[in-house]
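Example 331, ligand nicotinamide-adenine-dinucleotide.
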Amino acid sequence: MRLLVTGGAGYVGSVCSTVLLENGHDVVVVDDLSTGNADAVPSGAEFIHADIADVAAEVLGAGSGSPRFDGVLHFGAQSLVGESVEFPEKYWQGNVVTTLALLEAMRLSGTPRLVFSSTAATYGEPEQVPITEDAPTRPTNPYGASKLAIDHAISSYAHAHDLAATSLRYFNVAGAYGGAGENRVVETHLIPLVLQVALGQRERISVFGTDWPTKDGTAIRDYIHVKDLADAHMLALSKATAGSHRIYNLGSGEGFTVREVISSCERITGLPISGADAPRRAGDPAVLIASSARAIDELGWKPEHTDLDEIVADAWEFMRNLGDRAHAARR
Ligand SMILES: NC(=O)c1ccc[n+]([C@@H]2O[C@H](COP(=O)([O-])OP(=O)(O)OC[C@H]3O[C@@H](n4cnc5c(N)ncnc54)[C@H](O)[C@@H]3O)[C@@H](O)[C@H]2O)c1
Ligand SMILES: O=c1ccn([C@@H]2O[C@H](COP(=O)(O)OP(=O)(O)O[C@H]3O[C@H](CO)[C@@H](O)[C@H](O)[C@H]3O)[C@@H](O)[C@H]2O)c(=O)[nH]1
């Protein structure tokens, strides 16, 4: 297929572009580099440096009579929970308004398929875990609310305009694949931050909240290997049907506390990692664990890298090999 990838200079988008190319697809990346790096775009992909809201109509050929792409994978977004509480405008504009422009361009060009990066943050604080797709959606931060609004917009476009749409609700993505991984200019995610401490690029890791109702008082998350996530995107592309919007949770199905993640990083790196207790971060839920049963049943998805130590080991190898290309090392 010929595919448009938004956010392909970011972490998940660059790994998925790599896997799309490995599967023989043609890939055009549009990225505004607001959080991504141009050098993360895989060399086999065409790269357009732009905000997708500005160029979607032109790139997709809105009004030209025939679609130029077989589908869009929409990773491009602002996606930091804490930042979204402080600057909600960045999330309503950058996520919702931008995606509405993309959906209009898809409608007007007749682009038939969409795979959207939704999130566990659409559910908010769960009543029970693991979380299924039928769980109530009560986001605890503007980031999750913006993604939920987009999911609703996609559903109505799919049904009214025959779009074959899939929303993949990722839990916490981690690890690396094919030379692509996490190398953000401003990093806020737990695993890369802990590994930056091991690399001597940061003094200690702050543990946000030690009074959560969990076994060691720190927050629990479900870490999914980015290669397993990429595989789910390939299945979503091939299985989607016109006029339907399916939503799938994607995680490994097991939860780890912040302290357990730090211990895993110590085991894998063989280095002691200094932590400092800190207050809870605004907008964070206590526990997020996925039920991916629907993706396993309907898409035939089989996560293959569910061991936390394996996920951390792949992230560690990627970060050690970054050398001068590491943004953290340049600061
Ligand atoms: N990383 C996770 O744990 C996680 C979990 C759930 C959902 N997600 C979702 O997955 C997607 C990718 O996340 P990531 O961790 O790779 O983030 P990232 O910040 O590394 O990548 C996002 C990319 O999108 C680009 N971008 C942002 N707005 C754009 C716009 N308007 N036009 C063009 N490009 C734009 C950025 O420059 C960046 O390269 C996001 O939609 C995010 O909400 C991520
Ligand atoms: O320096 C840090 C950074 C994070 N944490 C904690 O570690 C956990 C994981 O945090 P982080 O890696 O920042 O991810 P989340 O905030 O859980 O969000 C990720 O996972 C969500 C789905 O679960 C996605 O929607 C988001 O896009 C993605 O950033 C949370 O409890 C944080 O409070 C710390 O204790 N110290």
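Summary: Residues 101 and 270 are 48 Å apart (CA to CA).
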